[in-house]
């Protein structure tokens, strides 16, 4: 019989669907999916309020669904209709119920309720990764045109801040597990994950936690503010930059106020508070400006009400959220797909954790896609925001160098 290390290595080299999810102490790997639940606007409420509460076993860690909601679905869920856009017809949302969980810590431990789960066939599939550079959907000139249009909307009072998405793409298929662990060595982030399924792969080094719910306590951790890292830039210097930069401060304050408002709709009056205000987080290529907000949920608040209040995450849309989403959707020619959607886990006891899907690659239909976005606000410039998008994409693009 295979020991735990041998079993995990064999799983990686198979073609079995699996999910790898970053935790505070290491990584969790989920596989042997008993159910695969396709989510759309008609069944999302049933899924969140009924399906996720059904227990599969006596193992708490296996009584869960893990997966994602796409951006379009999250818009539709709060009553926003999207215009016709170019699309690759990827899943609007997809969640899995696992029978096996592998915990990667100092040692590897395995929980499974699947008989003979260690029997795995090695996959001999070949990957066709082309060496051509990524194509970018917007030139600086095209981006500037959108930027100037949105700047006029801001001056007219239609929005205060808006995030323009750019897409990098190239043809090819990837070895998702190898690329994920390569990415973790380069840029391990708190909300990193991998989904490997039969016909697609998603790899992410997302830094942003949108929902962290345990019992009746809920937290959100908006990121608003990015500074490119240089050899001389320290966390202390980055903090000084953010505090003294009027544009970054305004942007951050607006997003924090919006997220506090989102939490206030589902939390007890007076319970929404700032836990950590304007802290700097350091990553391989950049620094982020981050605030943590917490609150106590109202009695009898449902999973669907929580998701509807906080998704899509405001920090990657703009402010105010609803009107800004509508402006974006009518100007962006292609749908955002998984970008600015949300990946996470829902436990049968109601606890949940979700990120915002940024810094995320999708490999589907022999194509690799990566989207990034930066904010338009009075005081920002098109060239600066265009270059900031590249900084955000850099660690993922360099996986292919």
Architecture blueprint of SSEs:
Elements: H1 4-12, E1 18-22, E2 27-38, H2 44-49, E3 64-69, H3 71-77, E4 93-104, E5 108-112, E6 135-136, H4 140-155, E7 161-171, H5 176-187, E8 193-196, E9 200-204, E10 209-214, E11 217-220, E12 223-228, H6 235-244, H7 246-264, E13 273-282, E14 286-296, H8 303-310, E15 318-319, H9 321-331, E16 342-347, E17 352-355, E18 360-364, E19 367-376, H10 382-397
Antiparallel strand pairs: 1-2, 1-8, 2-4, 3-4, 3-16, 4-5, 6-7, 7-15, 7-19, 8-9, 9-18, 10-11, 10-17, 11-14, 12-14, 13-14, 16-17, 18-19
Please characterize this protein's 3D structure:
By secondary structure, the protein is of the alpha+beta class. The chain has a single domain, classed as Anthranilate synthase (4-Layer Sandwich), CATH 3.60.120. Helix content is 28%, strand content 31%. It has helices spanning 4-12, 44-49, 71-77, 140-155, 176-187, 235-244, 246-264, 303-310, 321-331, 382-397, and strands at residues 18-22, 27-38, 64-69, 93-104, 108-112, 135-136, 161-171, 193-196, 200-204, 209-214, 217-220, 223-228, 273-282, 286-296, 318-319, 342-347, 352-355, 360-364, 367-376. The chain has a 19-stranded antiparallel beta sheet that branches. Strand 18 and strand 19 (367-376) form a beta hairpin.
CATH superfamily: Anthranilate synthase
Count structural domains: 1
The proportion of residues in beta strands is 25-35%
Number of helices: 10
Overall morphology: globular
Q: Uncertain runs with pLDDT below 50, 5 residues or more?
A: none
Q: What is the CATH C level class, in words?
A: Alpha Beta
Annotated CATH topology: Anthranilate synthase
Q: From N to C, what is the helix and strand string?
A: HEEHEHEEEHEHEEEEEHHEEHEHEEEEH
Radius of gyration: 21 Å
Number of strands: 19
Q: How confident overall, as mean pLDDT?
A: 92
Helix-residue proportion: 25-40%
**Class computed from helices, strands and strand pairing:** alpha+beta
Largest sheet data: 19 strands, antiparallel
Would you identify the CATH architecture? 4-Layer Sandwich
Distance between the termini: 39 Å
């Amino acid at each position: 019989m295979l020991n735990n290390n041998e079993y995990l290595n064999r799983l990686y080299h198979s073609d079995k669907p699996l999910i790898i999810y970053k935790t505070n102490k290491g990584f969790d790997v989920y596989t042997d999916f008993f159910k695969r639940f396709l989510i759309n606007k008609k069944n999302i409420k049933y899924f969140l309020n009924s399906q996720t509460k059904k227990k599969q076993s006596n193992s708490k860690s296996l009584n869960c669904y893990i997966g994602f909601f796409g951006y379009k679905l999250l818009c539709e869920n709060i009553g926003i209709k999207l215009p016709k856009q170019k699309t690759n017809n990827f899943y609007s949302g997809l969640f899995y119920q696992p029978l096996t969980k592998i915990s990667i810590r100092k040692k590897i431990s395995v929980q499974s309720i699947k008989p003979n789960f260690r029997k795995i066939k090695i996959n001999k599939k070949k990957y066709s990764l082309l060496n051509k550079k990524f194509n970018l959907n917007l030139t600086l000139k095209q981006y500037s045109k959108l930027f100037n249009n949105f700047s006029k909307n801001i001056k007219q009072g239609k929005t205060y801040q808006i995030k323009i998405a750019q897409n990098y793409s190239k043809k090819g298929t990837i070895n998702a597990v190898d690329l994920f662990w390569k990415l973790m060595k380069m840029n391990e982030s708190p909300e990193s994950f991998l989904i490997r399924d039969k016909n697609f792969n998603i790899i992410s080094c997302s830094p942003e936690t949108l929902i962290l719910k345990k019992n009746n306590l809920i937290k959100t951790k908006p990121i608003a503010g990015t500074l490119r890292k240089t050899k001389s830039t320290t966390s202390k210097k980055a903090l000084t930059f953010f505090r003294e930069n009027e544009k970054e401060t305004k942007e951050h304050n607006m997003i924090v106020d919006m997220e506090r408002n989102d939490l206030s709709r589902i939390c007890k009056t007076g319970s929404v508070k700032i836990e950590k205000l304007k802290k700097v987080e350091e990553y391989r290529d950049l620094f982020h400006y981050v605030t943590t907000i917490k609150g106590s949920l109202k009695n009898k608040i449902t999973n669907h009400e929580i998701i509807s209040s906080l998704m899509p995450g405001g920090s990657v849309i703009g402010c105010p959220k609803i009107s800004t989403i509508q402006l974006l959707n009518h100007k962006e020619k292609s749908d955002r797909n998984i970008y600015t959607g949300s990946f996470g886990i829902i436990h049968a006891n109601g606890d949940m954790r979700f990120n915002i899907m940024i810094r995320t690659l999708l490999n589907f239909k022999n194509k690799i896609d990566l989207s990034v976005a930066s904010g338009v606000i009075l005081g920002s410039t098109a060239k600066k925001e265009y270059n900031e998008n590249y900084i955000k994409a850099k660690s993922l693009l360099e996986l292919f160098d």
